[in-house]
Amino acid sequence: MARVFVFAGGARSPRDREIDTLAVEHWGRSILVVPTRHEANERAARIIQSHALPGGWGASVVSFEDFVLALLREAGIYPHEMDEVERRMLVSSVLDRLHANGALNELGDAARSPGFANHVLRAIAKLKQAAIDPATFRQFVAARSRTSWIDPIVASIYEAYQSTLHQSDAYDRVGVYWRAHVLLCEGKPSLFDRADCVLFDGFDDFTPSEFRVIERVASYVDVLAIGLVCSSEATSQSDLYAIPLATLNIVKKAFPEADVRSLSEPVPRTRVEYVTTHLFWRDQPQPPRGIAEDLLLHPCHDRMHECEWIGREIKSIIVEQNVAPATIAVLFRRVEDVAPRLRLVFNEFGIPATFHAPLTLLDTTLARFLLQLLEVSPEWEREAVLDVITSRWSCVDDGHAGAFGYLARMAGVIDGKTEWMSCLARFQAWLSDGAGETHDAILRRVPDAMAAVRALSDQRIALERRLQDFPAEASRTRYCDAMLKCIAALRPERALETFEPEVRRLEESALHAATAVLRRMRRWGHALDNDTMLTLSQFRTELRDAFAASALEQERTISGVQVMSADSARYRAYDYLFLGGMNEGEFPAPPAADAIYSDEDWSEFARAGARVEMRSRQMEREMLLFHHVLGRARSRVYLSWSLSGHDGRPLAQSPFIEDVKGLVDPVATPSAQSTSFLPAFETAASAHDLRNVPHASREVEVALPDVFGCMAAGLEVESQRNSRAAFDPYDAILTDSALLDQLLQIYGQDHVFSAAQLEAYAECPFQFYLQRILRVEPVEAPDEEFDPRTRGRILHEALQVFHESYRGVPVSAIPVKQGRDTMVRICNEVFDRHVKGEVTAPRGVVRTERARMESQLLRYFDFAREEEVAWKPSNFEVGFGRAHALSADPLSRPEPFALDTNIGDVLLAGRIDRIDVMESRARIVDYKTRLNYEAKEVDEGVSLQLPLYAVALEHFLKTDTTCEEARLIQPGKRETREVLQRGKDKWPDREAAMRQGIARAVTGIRAGHFPPAPHNDRCRICALCRVCRYEEWRIERKSQTNDAAHD
After folding, report:
1. Which of 66, 234, 258, 993 is the 20 to 30 A CA-CA neighbour of 874?
2. DSSP 772
């Protein structure tokens, strides 16, 4: 039995030196075990260099995990340690088997949810860390005073999980420690023939699975030493070191003869040393005199301001103090949440940095491409198809990929494999023969449109062939084989050439990782005898989870500022340490959710003798982590936090900051001033920063003309924009002759306008300029609601299909039950085709929307039957001009409609939702998801669509008919709006207003006149209002000047 030494001391105590001394005394026959591989490498280097010892790399100092693996390998055991992907597959296999046997019936659908599998994995890991096998767990369950219905389910899952592990000859991470314990119980391992001294140092605690290995090791060595990072010298330290002090008691109980030594820390010399000694104080201590200040606390307005402040401080340290960037660390509790902002700031400031933010396979373009590929079938939704065929991984060689989206939209493709084929064929024929409408507009935008359409068709055919390997239902093995075949056919070397070098390395790594993941999934499908049939959607979900669980190998360098999570920095030391994100809810991090057992349940197991980890211990672990990280700086520590979130709501500082504030001079914590968003001149870290320096001197402006030269011009522009002068080029009044010539080439006499285009200009010329000419669109954030555009498409298509089923039949003549049944069937068919694009809407929202839409359409049918006049719906989605390509109705015409106006003929295109007839009369029906009708806008020539359609119907589409009505209908609402008002003799005036409004809009577009002067108050809801910076007082003043100039 070994002589056992226990050294308990804080981070600044001589604990580690005592352990090192023992290691040196037994050098060549000692093994020092530390928490991490990084710590092992640094500790070995330090011992060897400081004691001039012969090398012992990788063997004399190791991590605990490597120590256990060495034990097994020395005995000829080479365990296959499962990764996260394999563990998930194993648990899914277990759950599928138990579900098939009826063992999980009480859980219902929850048993098949990914969330349940995650919680099961966490519960099993907790039990295994506590060294509780399935049989022991059943004993603990039986000993519970308050049984739970889920106990037998968890026990069955755990038994099946362990049984499958044994059958597969595989090990999870904790299982490796279990196997090492079994080996140690069987006799002396061969490793201890050459090692008689084993030392453990730097640990806060040990799980029971780890500690029983240590207990068995003591039987085979001469010296066993355990170094724990803990102290109880200060009254507050019993709280801080609650976990290691409890571990110390366990060690004493296991080794009652141990030589236990408590090692003191020296008197604090710096503020950081003082804070770490008295952190989480109960009775506020008094700091010693002459203490060196090396701690700075800094509140920031928001996270971006915090990143900029950190960047400026770091650049100042590097430039002014000549500090090597690699000796500086930036830490956040979850660095992945803030890494994009930090990258942006560091790139702008010219700060070299290495980011240790975790990356998974799911973060790569390759993984997204493969998942998008599986999204295409069976719906073939336009955007999903375009995402795949325009991806770099599709390797489109002919340079046409940039036009694919535009051409698909012009061809009228929405979704469906058949629709893709028919729309592209029809569009290609139309482009080829040029019959009817001129296609100059398309050819100006895509000069080689025919070749581009052929390339798009070729890509569609290639995609269809590729998807033939992915049936709607297949085995996991078949899907994996199909995906591996797909990857092999990608010509990855060509795709990789298109990436920047840094990204290329990442995507190369992703290529190997994706192949490895698919092979493991295939192998485990066979090994688990679980190659069951899956739907394509289920396989895609499974593959996505596997990609998300697969960490990506990244090249790590020690050059540049080190950016990492607080966990990763626990055993690393730096000269300057920035710890950001010190806000409540971030640091300390909350405990992980547990849907299997509550803390009360785990407490019952603990009372029965199980050493399981409670969620309530999370705070103690976070306290220790903060303490360890705080003490890792050799020169200075900076603590920062944000006062508000991205939405402007106030954020509370971390409770840890409150404790620190009690140990520092209040003057050391500045308040965030309103001006602190702007840098001071001496801290400006980039040209952008310099431009934001308030009150920069004239000398600075002269010295740095490249930085400040444009600012004077900018001020002049702002002065002009806010003056009383008429609208000018700074408000989108184009005066450049080349631009005006270009406008005339696009929107000249042969251009075919749509009513929607002209209405958009009439409503707001500036918005038209942004969206229709500059093609600037707002970035839409994912919304957990149903997309209103999808809702509109479903309503339009459902009503079209319904009325086509009863073409020429008045709604009042359709039998009630038959009509209602038909409407419900059509609604569900159309809904199913369109709803797959609603990826951000929760399933509950989609179910509710389906029921709401069905009810809405049935109400429409009921209200339509009540009409006394027997209008017969006869034509649907009637197109003329460009829009004819989107319509199969026989009334559609490819030629544009030439409208006579006071500026000459204007060529127009449009699509009429529905035309009803009754004898020689007709009416137009236009469906709206919302009835926002203003008669004033028709009278003023702003609302143009229905008056234009009425004239086009009478003079172009159906010349033997009088358009008696143009009616707006909101399906599901009884109320409608009639626009023409022939019965009230308003039609002549409204027709004239329409012609004048179209002429006015066309004239303004051709003249390059696009001021931010909207027709009404729609600026309040316009997503682009920040681009034009609409201010009512400014626009009103300029509009008055503009009107006076025209008068």
Report:
1. 993
2. I
Give yes or no for a contact between 580 and 342, defined as CB atoms under 8 angstroms apart.
Answer: no
DSSP conformational letter for 332: E
Count of residues for the chain? Answer: 1047
User: What CA–CA distance (Å, rounded) separates 1046 from 520?
Assistant: 75
* CATH number given to 3-79+177-266: 3.40.50.300
Residue 353 φ then ψ, to 5°? -150, 150
What span, in angstroms and rounded, lies between the C-alpha atoms of 214 and 198? 9
pLDDT of res. 801: 92
Secondary structure in 3-state letters for 535-567: EHHHHHHHHHHHHHCCECCCCCCCCCEEEEECC
How far apart are alpha carbons 674 and 671 in whole angstroms?
A: 10
Pairing mode, if any, of strands 921-927 and 962-969? parallel
H/E stretch holding 201 reads: strand 197-203
Helix (H, G, I), strand (E, B) or coil at 399: coil
Distances (CA, A) of 664 to 576, 642, 660: 19, 20, 7
Tell me if residue 131 falls in helix, strand or coil.
coil
How far does Cα 579 stand from its chain's mean position?
24
Instruction: Give mean pLDDT, residues 184-212.
Output: 93
pLDDT of residue 309: 94
Kindly report whether the peptide bond that precedes residue 492 is cis, defined as omega within 30 degrees of 0: no
- For residues 747 and 1005, is the Cβ–Cβ distance under 8 A? yes
Beta pairing, strands 533-535 & 473-475: antiparallel
Asked whether 1028 and 1012 are in contact (CB, 8 A), the reply is yes
pLDDT at 1018: 66
Tokens (6 digits) for 133: 């096998």
The sign of the CA dihedral 658, 662, 665, 666 is positive
Q: How far apart (Å, rounded) are the C-alpha atoms in residues 939 and 936? A: 5
CATH number of 295-358+557-671: 3.40.50.300
User: Strand pairing partners for 551?
Assistant: 360
**What is the rounded CA–CA span in Å between residue 99 and residue 294?**
59
Closest CA to 88 of 553, 602, 528: 528
Instruction: Tell me if residue 355 falls in helix, strand or coil.
Output: strand
Return the amino acid letter for 620.
Answer: E
Residue 437 has pLDDT above 50, yes or no: no
Question: How many other CB atoms are there within 10 angstroms of residue 388's CB atom?
Answer: 21
**Selection from 202, 225, 199, 194 nearest residue 32 by Cα:** 199
Whether the CA torsion 560, 564, 568, 574 is positive or negative: it is positive
Residue 436 pLDDT class (50, 70, 90 cuts): very low
CA distances from 761 to 146, 449, 731, 772, 997 (A): 71, 28, 15, 9, 10
- Looking at residues 405-418, what average pLDDT do you find? 82
In angstroms, the first-to-last Cα distance of the chain is 107
Identify the H or E element spanning 341: helix 335-349
Answer for the pair 681, 696: CB distance below 8 angstroms, yes or no.
yes
- Strands (E) in 643-735, as ranges, are none
**In which band, very low, low, confident or very high, does the pLDDT at 531 lie, cut at 50, 70 and 90?**
low
- What are the residues facing 967 on neighbouring strands? 925, 978
Other Cβ atoms closer than 10 A to 636:
21
Mean pLDDT of 17-23: 94
Evaluate whether 965 touches 1019 at the Cβ level (below 8 Å): no
CA 1012 to chain CA centroid, nearest Å: 34
- Which residues, in sequence order, are CB contacts of 320 under 8 Å at separation 6+? none
Here the contacts of 399-405 (C-beta below 8 Å, separation 24 or greater) are 400/448, 400/451, 400/452, 400/455, 400/456, 403/445, 403/446, 403/449, 403/452, 404/452, 404/455, 404/456, 404/459
Mean of the pLDDT values across residues 193-206? 93
pLDDT class for 555, splitting at 50, 70, 90? Answer: low
Tell me which residue of 46, 39, 200 sits closest to 568, measured CA to CA: 39
Q: Is 329 helix (H, G, I), strand (E, B) or coil?
A: strand
